[in-house]
Amino acid sequence: MGGLRCLDGSYLTVTPVACRDSVGSPYEITLELHRDGVLYGTVGERCGWLLARLARGVAEARAGHQDQWPDPDDRFPGLPGEDELFAFRYRTRNGVVSGGELRCQLRTIPVWTPGRRGGSGEWRLTRRAFVEAWCGGGVGLRAVLTSAELGIFIDALVAEAEECLGRASPATHPGSP
After folding, report:
1. What is the DSSP letter of 77?
2. Is the dihedral of CA 128, 110, 83, 13 positive or negative?
3. How many whole angstroms separate alpha carbon 50 and alpha carbon 47?
4. 108 lies in a domain?
5. Alpha carbon distance 102, 24 (integer Å)
6. Which helix (H) or strand (E) holds 63?
7. What is the pLDDT along the chain (177 residues), one digit of tens a residue?
8. How far is 31 from 42, CA to CA, in rounded Å?
């Protein structure tokens, strides 16, 4: 189970659950959200392939050299100006959105670093992933992660999805059976 300690002190657990076709064979995943062990929502119908792609993207971004983000913890996948890494909602068969949401947005945060011995300081920019979960009732949770922490979280979800589906990777089936 992938999990995150949220800013309010609660613990958000995210568990992949197999989606099954008409004969009962697993083909993709949905994510169950639990807050401190209590069901919080169900999101992300057929999201395994996107999570697998994101896991690769985070690893590549951290390994690459980016002059703008010299600290690997500030490096995330995506193009400049893109700030949403994923947004999963629960949709009923008729398309109505309900039951929760899990999203991840990137934010740039300025941090003031004071100068030494009375010298002037400087602003340093950091980037963080804000993972937010919402239950069907509208109550939200938030965790703030470095790229390393996001990578660990997503890698754990992908590994559990692979186990849940009984195959090498959810990335092999981008959507339907």
Report:
1. S
2. positive
3. 5
4. yes
5. 26
6. helix 48-63
7. 679 999 999 999 999 999 888 999 999 999 999 999 999 999 988 899 999 999 999 999 999 877 788 899 999 998 777 899 999 987 655 555 566 899 999 999 998 888 888 778 889 899 999 999 998 788 899 999 999 999 999 999 999 999 999 865 555 544 444
8. 6
Q: 1: closest CA among 129, 158, 136, 172?
A: 158
- Which regions of the chain does DSSP assign to beta strands (E)? 2-5, 11-20, 26-35, 38-43, 84-91, 97-113, 122-134, 140-145
Residue span of the structural domain in which 103 resides: 3-167
The angle subtended at Cα 19 by Cα 13 and Cα 21, nearest 5°, is 175
Assess if residue 173 is contained within a domain. no
Claim: this prediction has a pTM higher than 0.85: yes
Residue 155's SS3 state is helix
User: CA–CA separation, 121 vs 125, rounded Å?
Assistant: 13
Pairing, β 140-145 against β 84-91: unpaired
* Domain total in the chain: 1
Within a domain: 41:
yes
82 found inside a domain: yes
